[in-house]
Design brief:
The chain is 34% helix and 23% strand. It is of the alpha+beta class.
Length: 372
């Protein structure tokens, strides 16, 4: 049998973190002629395909995060096969840590699936401005925030122990989370943590990484980021703050959304405010009349494709009567709106983007057809 060190292939097995590691080693690995393969666990599990055990004997090493709860896919079988074939294994934990993001959940928000904040409060406090106040109050309990950090760290330690990890991360996280951001979202690691992980994998499999990787500030999992709120930064005594929301999905894709706008939109989404898209160039009006009858300060010019986040849509004289909360122009960003309690949209120029707005629009349309 060929000696493991003479083989020219490394197999990465896991989810998004394995994909990231494979990409880094492909770009920055310094050993000539090496090939870096990838098997994505959630893809083969969803497809009902078995792990390709026949590929193991051709590998110098298999680098993976443990799967412990999927019979037929658990990594203990892969570890046994590697031992039998004389193939080195490197095991790192599933990388998820909620220390910066207490109470975070993954849910649909602004047309995409994101990690966002929630609060442990009664439903009546989980919407609108009440949401922002209640979230701030919950995160101002410094002892609770610190306890939640210890709890998520302990969960990571347990996963490391159960998975037999040769590259544990929990101690590095505890030692460094205050001085540099280690997570962009609860399950997307930031570059400082990836530098540590890559260096350990590199050392264990004996393949160098070019210094350009360690010198780069580019985020390996860039594109999604959840805010670290000021209350959390204070509770954890962080040496930095980073309040921006970034995503590659949905209506906010490609934008950097600052903390205040993120909280405003999140509270509004929980309140049930509807999203509407302009089907043509149009106006937000102060009164439900022809545009020619309006003064310049009584209308806002809007473009085809512009989005409006509105409260309480109703119909009146062929218009939607709304309370405008937020406007967004794809490719440009937020559009400034006047502080009106109510405004009017010409109904035929707008279409709802979610079921909540459709339901409200349908309900109000029925009411408008009732005899007065």
């Amino acid at each position: 049998m060929t000696q493991s060190a003479d083989r020219r292939r490394v197999l990465f097995y896991g989810g998004c973190h394995a994909q990231t590691l494979q990409r880094i080693f492909r770009e920055y690995g310094t050993e000539p002629g090496m090939e870096y393969d990838l098997v994505v666990n959630f893809q083969i599990i969803a497809a009902g395909k078995p792990f390709p055990m026949h590929r193991i004997p051709r590998c110098r090493a298999v680098v993976m995060s443990p799967v412990l709860n999927k019979p037929g896919y658990n990594t203990d079988r892969i570890l046994e096969a590697c031992r039998a074939a004389g193939v080195q294994t490197v095991v790192y934990p599933w990388i998820e840590w909620h220390g910066y993001h207490p109470y975070a959940v993954k849910r649909i928000f602004m047309g995409g699936k994101h990690w966002v904040h929630r609060i442990p409060a009664a439903p009546g406090l989980q919407a609108g401005e009440d949401f922002e106040r209640a979230l701030s109050l919950a995160l101002s309990d410094h002892q609770q925030v610190q306890d939640l950090l210890q709890r998520t760290t302990q969960a990571l330690r347990q996963n490391e122990a159960r998975g037999g990890c040769t590259v544990p991360l929990s101690e590095f996280i505890l030692d460094n989370h205050r001085t540099q951001r280690l997570f962009l979202t609860p399950d997307h690691a930031a570059q400082p943590l990836y530098r540590h992980l890559v260096a350990e994998v590199s050392r264990q499999i004996g393949i160098g990484i070019h210094p350009d990787y360690y010198a780069s500030a580019l985020e390996p999992q860039r594109g999604k980021q959840m805010p670290i709120l000021p209350e959390v930064a204070q509770a954890l005594k962080l040496n930095f703050m980073d309040g921006d929301f970034i995503t590659t999905e949905g209506l906010l894709a490609g934008r950097t959304v600052h903390r205040s706008e993120y909280l405003e939109l999140l509270g509004g989404a929980l309140l049930g405010r509807g999203l509407w898209r302009a089907s043509t160039g149009t106006r937000l009006k102060r009164r439900p009349v022809l545009s020619a009858a309006l003064a310049p300060d009584e209308c806002v010019e809007l473009c085809e494709g512009d989005l409006l986040h509105v409260a309480h849509p109703a119909t009146a004289d062929g218009h939607l009567q709304v309370r405008p909360v937020w406007a967004h122009r794809p490719g440009s960003g937020r559009v400034s709106l006047p502080a009106w309690d109510s405004g009017y949209l010409y109904a035929q120029h707008w279409a709802p983007l979610d079921r909540k707005s459709t339901r409200l629009n349908s309900s109000h349309s029925q009411q408008s057809r009732m005899p007065s």
